[in-house]
Amino acid sequence: MTDLVGDSQLTAEFVKFLNGQLKECRDQLQRYTQENTELREQLGAIRSGVPLGSPPPPHHGRTVSDLDAEVASLKEQLAVARQTAEAHANEAAMWRERYQKTKTVEGGLSLSELQRKAATDKLKNGLQEGLVRLKSAAKVTRSSTSQYQQFTTFMSKLSGSTASGVDALEPRVVFDTPKLQILSKAAVNACDGGFAFFGGLLNWCASPSENALLVCPEHHFTPNPGNDGGTKWSHPTEWSSLIGQRREVFDTDGAHLTYAGTFLFHAGPKALRLQDFPSPLENKTLGELARRTFNPANKSQRAKAKAYLHILSELYTEGTATVQVLGLQRVGFNDKFFQILKKAYEKRGRTSARVRARSETQRSLSPADWNTLDDGLGEEDATTTGEKRGRDDDVEEDGDEFGAGPSKKARSDGDGWLSWL
């Protein structure tokens, strides 16, 4: 600065330089101010939606009014849409209620149940028409209620063997199940003409008579037979073939099967309706009739039994399906046959008791105790040996309900009960 004071020319040039710098700063400040103003205008234009450089639109307030009107119009449309949706909801509820009403009919049956009933009725009508055609072709004279009552009286008074002192006192139970099982070869050989079990079809005469009445189906029904054009209904022969024959007869006693004695079969009334019986038959007899009428040809047909058995029961109840009656005269008590069955029955009981005892022992003994027991019994104990020996005289389940072969002492019944009338 001391040099500048002493040199005036240098001072003038410095002042000139400072003035130039100041002017340049002023120009720059002015330029920045102008840019700031332009930016403010752009920001305002962006906020107001007015294009840059164009004058502000006239009547700017009408645009807001138009928007308000448009908003009001949209609100009205929304209200109308809501009303339409509510109307459609009410209509949908009405149709839903109508649909629920169509699902039920008189009696409270659902639509699926109604369809199933229609299919069952169609099947029943087909069975009924086929049975009526078969009966019309056979031209069998129908028996009456009085004829059935006369036959019942005849069988009740018909003399037969009475129970001996031995077989009257001792129990006659031979199986612990109300179902006939396959008999041993020794028992079959001891039969007097064969054996039979009729379940609910057997009705005993009033005491003191030991005779019985057998209610039999007169027809067999086989669903969908072969393609030979054969009818679904047929006449069974196993019942009529019993007439004049002897059979060892089994009967139920609660949950057991008993041996009833040796019986001779007599011919009785035919073509009886269930309405012709003086008193209604038991439900078990009706169910047994339907089961014996149903005659499936294979396992596939047997699987349809539930639907057919119900229809067949209705045919019997309505009187379309008819029955025949056989008389069973007790002519003896096969003691040899009974003793074989009794011995096998008692052996099964002892075997079952040993098996239960062995099972209880297995649950109570420890492994160490079993080692000691095995040492004393060896590899095969007495229980196992007894079980093996008992298999020769034991029986198997699901036996045939009729014995094999005709009677060894065939007897002709002639006119049977009709000659007595």
Structural class: alpha+beta
β content, as a range?
Answer: 5-15%
Percent helix range: 40-55%
Mean pLDDT: 75
By DSSP, the count of extended strands is: 9
Distance between the termini: 171 Å
Q: What distinguishing features does this structure have?
A:
single chain; alpha+beta; two-stranded antiparallel sheet; 14 helices; 53% helix; elongated; disordered C terminus
Could you characterize the architecture of this molecule?
By secondary structure, the protein is an alpha+beta fold. Helices cover about 55% and strands about 10% of the residues. It contains 14 helices and nine strands. Strands 1, 2, 3, 4, 7, 8 and 9 form a seven-stranded mixed sheet that branches. Strands 5-6 form a two-stranded antiparallel sheet. The chain is elongated.
Give me the secondary-structure topology.
Layout: H1 2-6, H2 8-48, H3 60-102, H4 111-138, H5 145-157, H6 165-169, E1 173-175, H7 185-189, E2 195-197, E3 202-204, E4 212-217, E5 220-221, E6 233-234, E7 246-253, E8 256-267, H8 283-293, H9 299-302, H10 305-318, E9 323-332, H11 335-364, H12 367-377, H13 382-390, H14 417-420
Parallel strand pairs: 2-7
Antiparallel strand pairs: 1-8, 3-4, 4-9, 5-6, 7-8, 8-9
Helix pairs in contact: 4-10, 8-10, 11-13
